[in-house]
């Protein structure tokens, strides 16, 4: 005798319920979420790199006497190095590192007997003393009496690039030898760049070094005394 149709329905329904209960049990359905699952989570912390200490900077000399007491204080070697790195990299494909501390005798020439000043020394990274522009010195000096003559002589000199007027201070002129003469109020200063060893062909040396002296002037001149 064939099974009763109702009996078959009951068997099929029971089997389906067994399967459903098995699936629910495997997936965790029907369980109330635990308190841990429903807990409100706080914001994800933001990880920041360690802060970089600020670069030390020079100070403004209020008077000529302030400058003369410490001419090296108008800039720091580190801020000057960072400023010069971009034009020096364009020039030499390299960056500068510090060479000693700023000193009143650094870069001073015999023609500067009438001055009070300071030289900042650098060397090109990973170069030896025989490589072109291995050493760079930026020198700032205040002229006690001959500054007006220097500025006038520069203004009467060549006007072709890179020479001539530079928009810093009250008046400024870039002359031969990569020397910028600046009038700041009643005082006269020079900012000079000396890079050695020079190229074998020195005909374009002033053009090469002009961006360095202009960059140094932009940093230093606003801190020079005017009275």
Please give the structural blueprint.
Blueprint: H1 5-27, H2 35-38, H3 64-69, H4 77-92, E1 96-98, E2 115-124, E3 135-143, H5 147-155, E4 164-165, E5 171-175, E6 179-184, E7 187-196, H6 205-220
Antiparallel strand pairs: 1-2, 2-3, 3-7, 4-5, 5-6, 6-7
Helix pairs in contact: 4-6
Keywords:
33% helix, 227 residues, seven-stranded antiparallel sheet, alpha+beta, 6 helices
Q: What does this entry look like structurally?
A:
The mean pLDDT is 86. This protein is of the alpha+beta class and 227 residues long. The protein has six helices and seven strands; from the N terminus they run ααααβββαββββα. It has one domain. The protein has helices at 5-27, 35-38, 64-69, 77-92, 147-155, 205-220; strands at 96-98, 115-124, 135-143, 164-165, 171-175, 179-184, 187-196. The chain has a seven-stranded antiparallel β-sheet with strand order 1-2-3-7-6-5-4, sandwiched between helices.
Task: Give a quick rundown of the structure.
With 227 residues, the chain is of the alpha+beta class. It has 6 helices and 7 strands.
Mean pLDDT across all amino acids: 86
Rg over alpha carbons: 37 Å
Kindly name the structural category: alpha+beta
Distance between the termini: 126 Å
User: Helix coverage percent of residues?
Assistant: 25-40%
Biggest beta sheet attributes:
7 strands, antiparallel
Order of strands side by side in the largest beta sheet? Answer: 1-2-3-7-6-5-4
Low-confidence stretches: none
Individual helix count? 6
Give the SSE order as H and E letters. Answer: HHHHEEEHEEEEH
Q: How many strand segments?
A: 7
Give the strand content.
Answer: 15-25%
**Approximate shape:** globular
